[in-house]
Amino acid sequence: EPEVTQTPSHQVTQMGQEVILRCVPISNHLYFYWYRQILGQKVEFLVSFYNNEISEKSEIFDDQFSVERPDGSNFTLKIRSTKLEDSAMYFCASSEGRGLGLGDQYFGPGTRLLVL
Amino acid sequence: AQSVTQLDSHVSVSEGTPVLLRCNYSSSYSPSLFWYVQHPNKGLQLLLKYTSAATLVKGINGFEAEFKKSETSFHLTKPSAHMSDAAEYFCVVRGLTGANNLFFGTGTRLTVIP
Fold it and tell me: Taking 80 as the threshold, does the pLDDT of residue B52 lie above it?
């Protein structure tokens, strides 16, 4: 069964450093998403991406964040200058389309980011 | 605005006994509701979904959920818990905008006692 994969599974970085989290969505999916879950809190939507541009973003997704689909398979989340409060589990998801059925999102296992 | 509330952060049941994980939703319109499960070190897996068809929805691994508009609830049930059901369960509602983003509850950790 096809699945969403994410690398790395864990990342430790120093405050102020740039990190890139990578995701490989399911191959025939066209919509891509990033969510995050700070320890002990709920999973929060960050951004959705379709046709090489951002469809929607939450207020969390400020200028420090960017997303990119650099090639036909990868979908990346970049944090330019990490802060302590960026420490969280980051989930990538993809869906074939939007709405009923096609909009079902399939999630990767997550990348746990720790900012020191 | 769309939101869901999971009423229990932790539920503990004995193997073979019924499971009930509670979720209430808030939505201006007829919502699309989901239950996801997360096993340790695994991704979020879709268990089942409600999208305004049948109010009783069956999912994988014997789970089902009933949409009750009068109670604004979408509780997850299973007649008989199995050890492999131990995991974190999330009730989720889809956003109203065309971007398809999801709003998660805070999660319920299910423990199954042998």
Answer: no
Contact B100 A58 (CB under 8 A): no
A102 in B contact zone (CB under 8 Å): no
Q: What's the CATH code of the domain at A83?
A: 2.60.40.10
Query: Which residue, A31, A30, A90, A32, is CA-closest to A60?
Result: A90
Dump pLDDT digits (tens) for B11-44. Answer: 999 999 999 999 999 887 778 899 999 988 777 8
| pLDDT, tens digit (0-9, with 9 covering 90-100), for A52-78 | 999 999 999 999 999 999 887 899 999
B69, part of any domain: no
Give pLDDT tens digits for B38-49: 988 777 899 999
Q: Is B79 within the bounds of a domain? A: no
* A46 closest CA partner among A25, A62, A69, A68: A62
Rounded Cα distance between A95 and A91, Å, is 14
Tell me the nearest-neighbour CA distance from A21 into chain B, angstroms: 15
A56 at interface of B, judged by CB pairs closer than 8 A: yes
Q: Quick check: is B107 in a domain?
A: no
Above 90 in pLDDT, residue B65? yes
State whether B94 and A107 contact (CB < 8 Å). no
Give me B2's structure tokens: 């769309």
Residue with tokens 């700070």, as numbered in its chain: A38
DSSP helix/strand/coil, B9: coil
- B83 lies in some domain: no
Q: In this complex, which of B32, B90, B101 lies closest to A56 when CB atoms are compared?
A: B101
**What domain count does chain A have?**
1
Instruction: For residue A16, give how far its alpha carbon lies from the nearest alpha carbon of chain B (Å).
Output: 28
Q: Which CATH number fits the domain that encloses residue B26? A: 2.60.40.10
